[in-house]
Amino acid sequence: MEHGTDWQTIDTTLLMGAFATIAADIETTKSAIAEGGSELNPLLGRKPSNKKLNAAGLLVAGAQVGVAMNLPKEYRRPFLAGMIGMEVTLAHQNTKKRPFKNFADAMKRPIAAGLIAAFLGHALLGDGGLMVTPVLGKVPAINLAMKF
After folding, report:
1. Three-state SS at 7
2. pTM (2 decimals)?
3. To 5 degrees, how large is the angle CA 71–CA 77–CA 83?
4. Among 74-88, 97-111, 129-143, which is the least confidently predicted range?
5. Are the C-beta atoms of residues 123 and 137 closer than 8 Å to each other?
6. Helix H or strand E segment including 134
7. Ranges assigned E (strand) in 1-148
8. What average pLDDT does range 2-14 have in this prediction?
9. Which residues lie closer than 8 Å to 50 by C-beta, 6 or more apart?
10. pLDDT, mean of residues 55-80
11. Radius of gyration over alpha carbons of the chain, in Å?
12. How much is the mean pLDDT over the chain?
């Protein structure tokens, strides 16, 4: 099957979610800069204009569409879920006055959130399965399994 031809409603929903979280990241970045903050992404500069931020958001959204359309659903859904997790965390960070040392420092939590979201996206939206397994005398374990 050609990639992108197995597109379903859940894929459109995830893509719209990814677009919404990109917009949230861009708008909270604008707000933070207006309140005296600065951008840490070296590609954008410390005080990018709204026009530059909007263009960056459109570029990211376009790249996500291109990647998503070329992935089979078992990779597309975790990819989009991961992007949502990362962008939500970026938008949240923009609302805080927490100082970061540099761009790499600022990306630690968003990347971790993106990986967790991708993992869960695979388990809940793809061909995977998510089970909580009780273990006597220990903390319950979460198992992720691929269905074949």
Report:
1. coil
2. 0.81
3. 100
4. 129-143
5. no
6. none
7. 128-133, 141-146
8. 80
9. 30
10. 93
11. 18
12. 85
CA dist., res. 100 & res. 33, Å (int): 15
At which residue do the structure tokens 């530059």 appear? 52
| Best CA proximity match to 81, nearest among 119, 109, 131, 111 | 119
* CA pair distance 15, 28, nearest whole angstrom: 20
Q: How far apart are CA 148 and CA 128, in angstroms?
A: 9
Q: How far apart are CA 36 and CA 143, in angstroms?
A: 45
Residue type, 6: D
Side chain identity at 115, as an amino acid letter? Answer: L
Give residue for tokens 């809940």. Answer: 124
User: What confidence score (pLDDT) does residue 99 get?
Assistant: 85
Cα–Cα distance between 96 and 69 in angstroms, integer?
Answer: 34
DSSP type of residue 21: H
Q: 6 to each of 1, 12, 73, 76, how far by Cα in Å?
A: 8, 11, 7, 11
- Least Cα distance to 74 among 123, 17, 143 occurs for 123
Spell out the residues 6+ positions from residue 122 whose beta carbon is closer than 8 angstroms to its own. Answer: 74, 77, 78, 81, 128, 144
Of 81, 78, 71, the residue nearest 6 (C-alpha): 71
- Contact between 57 and 25 (Cβ < 8 Å): yes
